Amino acid sequence: MKATVVNINAVPKLNLKNLLKSLCVALIISIILIAILSLLLVFTPLPESTTGFAIILVIILSNLLAGINLSKKMRANGMVAGSVSGIFYAVALYLIGAIFYNKVDINLGTLGMLLLSLISGAIGGIIGVNSK
Helix axis angle, 108-130 relative to 78-101, nearest 10°? Predict the structure, then answer.
């Protein structure tokens, strides 16, 4: 058997520019999906009790697509790239919320969103790095 030599310098590094682009993609997708949800709430008999579940779906979809976007650019380390994009997304949403509500409150919901963003971003990264 012949040993395979791997050049670790050939693995792309996490680029801040690409990370910020994937964050912008995630935030734009979130805005679009929340606008659609708002229209559905206003113009259909969709009950407001479904809002929490719909927001969770928005977070998952946004992070999946951001993870896919970033890991396709990196071509390696998809789970790490997706996880980092998920964390950046959660922190960005938290900071936006803190600015608009003028308060900083870390609770179980905040930590749940962080964990959900991390996991869905990692899954998106795995999908992105393994897709053509």
Answer: 140
The alpha carbon dihedral of 17, 22, 23, 27 has a sign of: positive
Distance between CA atoms of residues 44 and 79, nearest Å: 38
The answer to whether 26 touches 85, Cβ cutoff 8 Å, is yes
**Which residue carries 């058997």 as its tokens?**
1
pLDDT of residue 7: 57
Ranges in the chain, pLDDT < 70: 1-12
C-alpha closest to that of 90 among 125, 66, 68: 66
Q: pLDDT tens-digit profile of 17-42?
A: 999 999 999 999 999 999 999 999 99
